[in-house]
Amino acid sequence: MALLGYLAASLTTVSFFPQAIKTVRSGDTSAISLRMYALFTLGISCWGVYGLLTADGPLIVANAITLVPAGLILERKGRALLAGRRRRH
Amino acid sequence: MALLGYLAASLTTVSFFPQAIKTVRSGDTSAISLRMYALFTLGISCWGVYGLLTADGPLIVANAITLVPAGLILERKGRALLAGRRRRH
User: Fold this and answer.
1) Nearest neighbour of B31 by CB, restricted to A18, A26, A35
2) What is the pLDDT of residues A14-62, one digit of tens each?
């Protein structure tokens, strides 16, 4: 049963990497929701702090790993929006 | 401290809704990674089953809610890929 939990945690953590790779490679963030990645990155940061406060190792590790691709996607989306705004003015 | 955990869970759960709304409204899935949503949807399904097996209410609820937008994005991406394949032949 614990194995299913580890499988679930691995799948949801690993899943953000193909999206981050696709986003960084293509530079295309048009279909990516800024709100999703703003809320999600804030959410996993809260999970990480919660893990630190409750001294929960797996929670800290899983969220620290997920923060890398999620933060990268958020940064690319933000950068594309700023570049778009600059072009319009 | 528990409040921070609930905040974290709410943020990561809620975050998928703006992406699903954007994807359904625009129909644009070009920048969306099929692999991400395939792995993520499988992952939260595993989390849900793990929640059922361990009788963990919050785990069942959070993952059942997340399954709706994540599954919707996966379905739209899959549909767009199939439509693209049909056009090429």
Assistant:
1) A26
2) 999 999 999 999 999 999 999 999 999 999 999 999 999 999 999 999 9
Q: The complex's ipTM?
A: 0.91
Identity of the residue in B16, B29, B37 whose CB atom sits nearest the CB atom of A36: B16
Backbone angles phi, psi at A54, to 5 degrees: -100, 5
pLDDT score recorded for residue A9: 94
Report CB contact under 8 Å: A32, B32.
Answer: yes
Residue type, A54: T
Does the pLDDT value for residue A88 go beyond 80? no
Q: Is A6 on the interface with B (CB under 8 A)?
A: no
CA A13 to chain centre: 9
| Burial (0-12, 13-18, 19+ Cβ within 10 Å), B69 | buried
Q: What is the CATH number of domain A2-88?
A: 1.20.1280.290
Q: Which of residues 43-72 of B touch A (CB under 8 A)?
A: 43-44, 46-47, 49-50, 53-54
